[in-house]
Hints:
By secondary structure, this protein is of the alpha+beta class. It has helices spanning 6-14, 34-42, 63-79, 108-117; strands at residues 16-19, 25-27, 48-51, 84-91, 96-104, 122-126, 133-136. The protein has a 7-stranded antiparallel sheet, sandwiched between helices. A hairpin with a 4-residue loop joins strand 4 and strand 5 (96-104). The longest helix is centred in the middle third of the chain and has 17 residues, at 63-79.
Amino acid sequence: xxxxLPAQRTIxxxxxxxxxxxPPIVFQIGVSHQGxxxxxxxxxxxxxxxxxxxxxxxxxxxxxxNLDRRMQLLSKIxxxxxxxxxxxxxxxxxxxxQDCYLVFDLDAQVASRWAQEFDQxxxxxxxxxxxxxxxxxx
Length: 138
């Protein structure tokens, strides 16, 4: 079980989430975003999630170590034959950024399992209305 401290919760809840589309889509937790809802609709998706494999349990790894972990996660996404975008979450106030993937129609139980497998504090759930929420791993 992963224990999430209040400081980590604040980082996730106040981050900007950026999807590398053209133009990029930037959104926040708890705020409906029409562009995000339209992106889901364009893929005929019922949901999406943002999930990362970098910096397990908040431990800063080298760029190469994080790249290896992201490639492992990408392999799982591609093996499941799911559509995805490269994305990141960042918190300028905390000088923090982390690469992740926006994955369409990934089952919530699978997203939780993958987040725990990669020692992540949380993943982000995005329903069709584009109002994202954080799902904690603890």
